[in-house]
Amino acid sequence: MQKPNDDIRVGVIIFPYSKLLRGWIAPDGELVGNPIKAQRMAEELNRNITIH
Fold first, then answer.
1. CB 13: neighbour CB atoms within 10 A?
2. 1 domain residue, yes or no
3. Taking Cα atoms as reference points, which of 17, 18, 19, 10 lies closest to residue 42?
4. Sequential DSSP letters for the chain
5. pLDDT tens digit at each of 52 positions of the chain
6. Residue 51 and residue 32: Cα distance in Å, rounded?
7. Residue 22 belongs to what domain range?
8. How many Å apart are CA 47 and CA 6, to the nearest integer?
9. 21 occurs within a structural domain
10. Which of 20, 32, 37, 49 has the fewest C-beta atoms under 10 angstroms from its C-beta?
């Protein structure tokens, strides 16, 4: 993530940023407004995918 409104990408997980909703959309549809929380969620999802 280079700019505050960039998509968050971790491995195969992508949380796209929605300008309309002002947050990142998780793969399950949850809206996350905090970029640090979104990054941690993406890392956890990616970790779970690579383990299984």
1. 18
2. no
3. 10
4. --STTSPEEETTEEE-EETTTTEEEPTTS-EE--HHHHHHHHHHHHHHHHH-
5. 677 789 999 999 999 999 999 999 999 999 999 999 999 999 999 999 877 6
6. 24
7. 8-51
8. 21
9. yes
10. 20
